[in-house]
Amino acid sequence: MPRIIPCPPALVLLAFLLALLAGAASAAAEIVKLPVTIDYPLLQNLIINKAFREGNESVVLASEGDGCIHLALSHPRVSEENGFIRMETEITAHAGTPLASECMMPVAWKGYLVLYQRPVIDNRTWQLSFKSYRSGLFNSNRQPVKIAGLLWQLIESHVFAYLDSITIDLAPPVNSLKEFLFPLFPPQVQQQTQAMLDSLRTGEPGITPKAVTIEILADVRETYKPDDTRLTETLSGKELEEVVAVWENWDALLSFMIATMAKDVLSPEERQTLMDVLLETRYAFLDSLGNQSVTHDFVRIQFASAWRQLEPIFRNHLTPDASQQKLGYLAFFTAADALTVLDGLGPTFGIEVSRNGLIRLARMLSSDPNILRYGPGVNPSLQQLFEVDPEPVQAPEQPDPPPESEFLEEDLPPPPPPDPLSQILDFFCAPLHAAEAASIEEIRRWKVPNGRIDIYVKRVVQLLKAQAQTTAREKKVPPSFRSYYRLMIPAMAWQESCFRQYVVRDNKLTYLLSYNNSSVGLMQVNTRVWRGVYNLERLRWDIRYNAAAGCEIATLYLKDYALRERKGEKKPDNETIVQLVYAMYNGGPAQYKKYLERKRTGRLYSSDKLFQEKYEWVSAADWSKINKCLIGG
């Protein structure tokens, strides 16, 4: 029989306490701080909307005796000064004694009141108010003044109480935050998610030089184990289709946000950031889609990355008005900031951005139901951002080249005999969904013929050279690069489409479409990347429009990226710039550094090498090489 050694009561108690502490530690929640940041321009807008809602940002506090007694406040301005909120408002005061229809001994004053305040938050109601610590009156020249008598009595009895009563209701943004966050967590952890949302409470408000800050505290427990692989597994089939649909909603929301900011006057740095975010987000999606690396958390990662870059610009360009929608902007900022905080905690929380989540975000910004519509239309604000004219400047139409070819006949294969089916198609078959801007005759004119390829090639080269010259002039391509530019454009078209805008597919004449169904026509302009900037139907069916758009895009990458001054970096030589422009045209702004690294290490992509080959052929006017890809096209 085994010997039982009794355990002293003190040890039993100690073991119990250790087990209890261990259990408490495993169940303990991490306190996460979700920021509410109210920039002073936004706070000013909220105060105007709450307390200065009459015409011209004003409010009348007293009006008696047909204006004998009148007191109005207007144009509040909010900023930070020495650790306080400085709230300034204009005062218009008129005081007298109404007697019958007369105003006896009237006095009037117009100047400014300045209050120095600190924020206070009610933990129960989420009401943000402001406690005044000192004040001052100033004349119209901003010099301190003292007022006595009826005027002071009028101001003292009405103004201070009114301004101290102003509150900002943060309950709606907090409720919007809860509605936004709940669907982001997986269904199997709804109980834990609800517990986290129920734990939301206020922290202490603070003042910074740029904003009033309030922390929302939340008790967060891990909902996923660290080894969970769902978020990192690549998708296919129906799951991939669902994520693609969510991404399209996200792209529509991102486009709306960027277009909203693009309407304002932007600094060069802000414009560059907006372009970078939109292009890199779209190219990254295409790249992940192409190499089959799209995951469940793809949209969440893109959203968090984009918001970190866009937030300061978005906040900086809020329009100064009293729109009720400003509270929606605060809700959006709060939700977006919360998502980035949770994103920074790692994937163990299992959050995903869903279509429902994007719908809630969009509603915070606008009541327009079309914000999330992934449509083909042109957005003038995006065109303004990219400095694209509503109608790209197209080269004057060139006459067909003469029958005499610049190629030697022996360098070309003999033309094949006429194809009866092709002749029938040319006569009867209208192109699919042809845009109104391009007639059927014009489309057929740019169909690759069965014979005399040399004439067709000369026609395309003539178009490309004329368009390159036109765009270089209109977009002010630097003169030192123009000779390279005129060679680069035909080389890009050769590499991208083998000089084709149209092909015969399934016995029908249609536009050339890339393998991933996103790039079209002669310059293979990507319809996902340039959605909203160019007319997608015209890119498909109008070769001249396609050439003009491709030239504009190449010029954008040339001037705003390849030729941009970069601190501490030497400008590449012109031959390298040609390669850089093509790499970015093909893969987005991120390819600038990636191409230079490939060149430095000697690990060029096959596309880099193939484009270099085309550029050399164009430089030597060796157009006969086009037969390698064009015959049978």
Protein described:
The chain is elongated, with a radius of gyration of 33 Å. Strand 5 and strand 6 form a beta hairpin. Residues 1-27 and 405-437 have low confidence and may be disordered. The strands form four sheets. The chain has a six-stranded antiparallel β-sheet. With 633 residues, the chain is an alpha+beta fold. It is built from 21 helices and 14 strands. It folds into three domains: 39-168, no CATH class; 171-220 and 233-375, no CATH class; 409-630, Lysozyme. Helix content is 46%, strand content 17%.
List keywords for this structure.
Lysozyme, 3 domains, 6-stranded antiparallel β-sheet, 21 helices, 633 residues, 4-stranded antiparallel β-sheet
The structure class reads: alpha+beta
Distance between the termini: 92 Å
Beta-strand residue percentage:
15-25%
The mean pLDDT is 84
* Low-pLDDT runs: 1-27, 405-437
CATH architecture assignment of the largest domain = Orthogonal Bundle
Strands of the largest sheet, in order across it? 2-3-4-5-6-7
Describe the secondary-structure layout.
Layout lengths: L8 H19 L2 E10 H12 L6 E7 L4 E13 L2 E16 L2 E20 L5 E12 L10 H16 L2 E3 L1 H11 L8 H9 L2 E2 L3 E2 L3 E10 L16 H26 L5 H23 L7 H19 L8 H20 L10 H11 L14 H6 L34 H9 L11 H6 L7 H22 L7 H16 L4 E4 L2 E4 L7 E2 L4 E2 L9 H6 L1 H20 L11 H14 L3 H11 L4 H14 L7 H4 L3
Antiparallel strand pairs: 1-10, 2-3, 3-4, 4-5, 5-6, 6-7, 8-10, 9-10, 11-12, 13-14
Helix pairs in contact: 4-9, 4-10, 6-7, 6-8, 7-8, 8-9, 9-10, 14-15, 14-17, 15-18, 15-20, 17-18, 18-19
